[in-house]
Design a protein that fits this description.
42% of the residues lie in helices and 15% in strands. α2 crosses α10. The protein has helices at 8-28, 44-59, 75-87, 106-112, 124-131, 140-152, 171-180, 195-200, 245-248, 262-284; strands at 4-5, 34-40, 63-69, 93-96, 160-164, 184-188, 204-207, 225-228, 232-233, 239-240, 254-255. The strands form three sheets. Strands 1-11-8-7-5-6 form a six-stranded parallel β-sheet. The protein has a three-stranded parallel β-sheet with strand order 3-2-4, sandwiched between helices. It has a two-stranded antiparallel sheet with strand order 9-10. It starts with a strand and ends with a helix. By secondary structure, the protein is an alpha/beta fold. α2 links the parallel β2 (34-40) and β3. It is built from ten helices and eleven strands. The chain has two domains: 30-122, 3-Layer(aba) Sandwich (Rossmann fold); 140-263, NAD(P)-binding Rossmann-like Domain (Rossmann fold, 3-Layer(aba) Sandwich). The structure holds NADPH dihydro-nicotinamide-adenine-dinucleotide phosphate (NDP). NADPH dihydro-nicotinamide-adenine-dinucleotide phosphate binds next to α10.
Length: 285
């Protein structure tokens, strides 16, 4: 079997077109979607992510603001910036790029973002709403994975879904969204015994560990859907996922590539969340 590719670039392009149309309608009604991104320090990977996010906003017709702050920014100065953006009615979404420099508390900064502007969905009240099945914002990466599964026509009701990696930003919310879609979910971490046995049961396997190519074809159930969230840079400078694509594609029915899979969908869902924030703020006002 050679798996069919779930093309995150193509899916993103069509969703972003719809988002741009909705943004144009909102702008015409005097409600242009606005996203503020706060970047503290000079981390090279963060600079690239932030640039991509700002550029995607601009292409979709959003107002986008990039607030750069120096690496030695104090917690008080960062909280003051968040407060200023919370009060700015032209800004509907606020994203503080992580990781922050070590002297800053990401938890306290995320908690300071108004929950109705928390387009990353990391605020504890948004995590709680997701947990109780009433999400306001779904974290962008797992939201993008769910969109990919939906648009590919994968039936999740009763499916065995296995998520490898249990971080707050990917694995845990991913497990919750799959559960809410009717899947039977197993959430694995670095202490999981016999990871291979769990993987081999999965109709849908989502991998988000940050360990390059750790999931190989022999660990995958024939005909499974394999979603690779990982982004790892190899010695030759090329990117690869947490799944060994070459062996996995011979066993799976569907697979996402890296790059060109989950990555573009993550940014698309950031736009989607910002748009949803504007639409909700309209209803509220
Ligand atoms: P974290 O480092 O926060 O979490 C990694 C998780 O994987 C932890 O739960 C850890 O377990 C688990 N893990 C690590 N090694 C193993 C192993 N050998 N077997 C089983 N589980 C293991 O990572 P993130 O969730 O932030 O990111 C994961 C990957 O996804 C990274 O490659 C990251 O770059 C990528 N990513 C991609 C995005 C995209 O847009 N495509 C967005 C966000 C992340 P434990 O809890 O026991 O430590």
């Amino acid at each position: 079997m050679t798996a069919q590719i779930i093309d995150g670039v193509a899916l993103s392009a069509s969703i972003r077109e719809q988002i741009a149309q909705r943004a144009a309608a909102l702008t015409a009604a005097g409600r242009r979607p606005g996203l503020a991104v706060v970047l503290v320090g000079e981390d090279p990977a963060s600079q690239v992510y932030v640039r991509n996010k700002v550029s995607a906003c601009e292409k979709a017709g959003f107002k986008s603001e990039l607030h750069r702050m120096p690496a030695d920014t104090t917690q008080a100065a960062l909280l003051a910036k968040v407060d200023e953006l919370n009060k700015d009615s032209s800004i509907h979404g606020i994203l503080v790029q992580l990781p922050l420099p070590a002297h800053l508390s990401s938890h306290d900064v995320i908690e300071a973002i108004a929950s109705e502007k928390d387009v990353d969905g990391f605020h504890v009240s948004n995590a709680g709403l997701l947990m109780t099945g009433k999400p306001l914002f779904r974290p962008c990466t797992p939201y993008g994975v769910m969109k990919m599964l939906e648009l590919t026509g994968i039936n999740l009701r009763g499916a065995e879904a296995v998520v490898i990696g249990a971080s707050n930003i990917v694995g845990k919310p991913q497990a919750m969204l799959l559960l809410q879609a009717g899947a039977t979910v197993t959430l694995c971490n670095s202490k999981t015994k016999d990871l291979k046995a769990h993987c081999q049961r999965a109709d849908v396997l989502v991998v988000a560990t940050g360990r390059a190519k750790m999931i190989t074809g022999d660990m995958i159930k024939p005909g499974a859907v394999v979603i690779d969230v990982g982004i790892n840079r190899m010695d030759d400078g090329k990117l690869c996922g947490d799944v060994d694509f070459d062996s996995a594609k011979e066993v799976a029915a569907w697979i996402t590539p890296v790059p060109g899979g989950v990555g573009p969908m993550t940014i698309t869902m950031l736009l989607q969340n910002t748009l949803e924030a504007v639409e909700r703020s309209e209803v509220a006002s």
